[in-house]
């Protein structure tokens, strides 16, 4: 409609040049009005955004660099003032303080940026050297040690399956031995052999997982699939004896929950006869592989002195040249054979053990075992009731993770994933 009106108006003009001049003026006027309108809208939106951002700004450590470490909230910002401890949240407009050793303990402002690092094989021309590695723990913290204080000794056992969840029965064994030591009891030899056998089968499960996933991290995929077939067979043994594949809850203070089912020992024996052949296949595939050597030799070297200072144990300390094994240095107790001739009336007391719990005499003890990842220790304090007064868990992975900075210092970024695979960290036991 607007175009028709303009055409009719132009037809009344007497000069063609006047028509050209009019079109020029009209075009520039229309274009100018649109540009001015857009600019006004952009300016208005920018002013509103800046006003909103400056009035509701809080400090946030992981904010983008464009915001200089600030984060703004548009609504309900005042409901957090009590938790933060400030009267008015609008006054928060801080820059991100970053500690600098070079300024003698003073704080300086630094612009931080989020950066995505792709771990893996790195081109020789690519830069990137690790100058500091600080592990941040606690994301998997569940308060396990405190929860155990509110459970009976039998109820506390399932928590140990969820610490290092690829070394389940070894964790259970440490707690069971600590309770038995406080009670001053010996377990039957059959129970001792059953617990030892399944602890070693659990050790194989852990090492299969650690070695093959380490190989997978540095580019070797075939060993992972080959050996996980054997790991599935071990899971079947756990399922047949306890009903669960991973969180078995099989060990008990005083022995095990159930006896072995018929035929299980024969199947374990047949598997153990064939398993060394699979180890030979793994060694042929991985040990002499040139890519495996290139990604592991002279990477993450730890001396014997550093290993002792950091509190390493297990394969980590033995890899540094120190022959240390809790199974040899502090062997688990040798129990004498015990015979029982119980009637049904005496079994009623055993039923009460599971409903009310059993009382452990007051005392404290520390029991270490050789877990797949190293020395797994349980410091148990009893106060004479059916619940532990204190249960401290010494996880081997915590000490190994603490050495990340010294191990990775001046290494390439691509080598960090190889170091993590060597440490074989499970954060279930680190954070607890």
From TrEMBL:
GO terms for biological process: mitochondrial electron transport, NADH to ubiquinone. One of its GO terms (cellular component) is mitochondrion. One of its GO terms (molecular function) is oxidoreductase activity, acting on NAD(P)H. PROSITE patterns: COMPLEX1_49K. It comes from the Eukaryota. Residues 217-341, 343-432 form the NADH-quinone oxidoreductase subunit D domain. Keywords: NAD, Translocase, Transport. Belongs to the complex I 49 kDa subunit family. PANTHER family: NADH DEHYDROGENASE [UBIQUINONE] IRON-SULFUR PROTEIN 2, MITOCHONDRIAL, NADH-UBIQUINONE OXIDOREDUCTASE 49 KDA SUBUNIT. This is Complex I-49kD.
């Amino acid at each position: 409609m607007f175009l028709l009106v303009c055409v009719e108006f132009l037809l009344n003009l007497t000069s063609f040049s006047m028509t050209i001049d009019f079109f020029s003026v009209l075009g520039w006027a229309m274009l100018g009005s649109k540009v001015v309108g857009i600019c006004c809208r952009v300016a208005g939106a920018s002013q509103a955004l800046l006003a909103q951002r400056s009035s509701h700004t809080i400090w946030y450590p992981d904010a983008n660099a464009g915001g200089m470490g600030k984060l703004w909230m548009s609504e309900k910002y005042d409901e957090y003032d009590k938790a933060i401890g400030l009267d008015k949240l609008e006054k928060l407009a801080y820059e991100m303080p970053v500690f600098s050793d070079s300024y003698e303990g003073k704080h300086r402002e630094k612009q931080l940026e989020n950066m995505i690092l792709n771990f893996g094989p790195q081109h020789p021309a690519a830069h990137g050297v690790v100058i500091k590695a600080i592990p941040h723990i606690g994301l998997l913290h569940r308060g396990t040690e405190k929860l155990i204080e509110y459970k009976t000794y039998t109820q506390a056992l399932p928590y140990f399956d969820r610490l290092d969840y690829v070394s389940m029965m070894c964790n259970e064994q440490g707690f069971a031995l600590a309770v038995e030591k406080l009670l001053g009891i010996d377990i039957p030899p059959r129970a001792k052999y059953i617990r030892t056998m399944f602890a070693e089968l659990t050790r194989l499960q852990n090492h299969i997982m650690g070695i093959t996933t380490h190989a997978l991290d540095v580019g070797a995929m075939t060993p992972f699939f080959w050996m996980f077939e054997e790991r599935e067979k071990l899971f079947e043994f756990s399922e047949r004896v306890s009903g669960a594949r991973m969180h078995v809850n099989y060990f008990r203070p005083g022995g095990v929950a159930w006896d072995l089912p018929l035929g299980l020992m024969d199947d374990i024996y047949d598997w153990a006869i064939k398993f060394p052949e699979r180890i030979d296949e793994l060694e042929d595939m991985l040990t002499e592989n040139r890519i495996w050597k290139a990604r592991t030799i002279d990477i993450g070297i730890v001396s014997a002195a550093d290993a002792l200072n950091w509190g390493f144990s297990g394969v980590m300390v033995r890899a540094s040249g120190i022959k240390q094994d809790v199974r040899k240095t502090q062997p688990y107790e040798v129990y004498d054979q015990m015979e029982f001739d119980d009637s049904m009336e005496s079994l009623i007391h055993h039923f009460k053990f599971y409903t009310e719990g059993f009382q452990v005499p007051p005392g404290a003890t520390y029991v270490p075992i050789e877990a797949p990842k190293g020395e797994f220790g349980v410091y148990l304090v009893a106060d004479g009731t059916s619940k532990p007064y204190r249960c401290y868990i010494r996880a081997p992975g915590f000490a190994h993770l603490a050495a990340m900075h010294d191990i990775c210092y001046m290494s390439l970024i691509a080598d960090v994933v190889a170091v993590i695979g060597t440490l074989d960290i499970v954060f279930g036991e680190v954070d607890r």
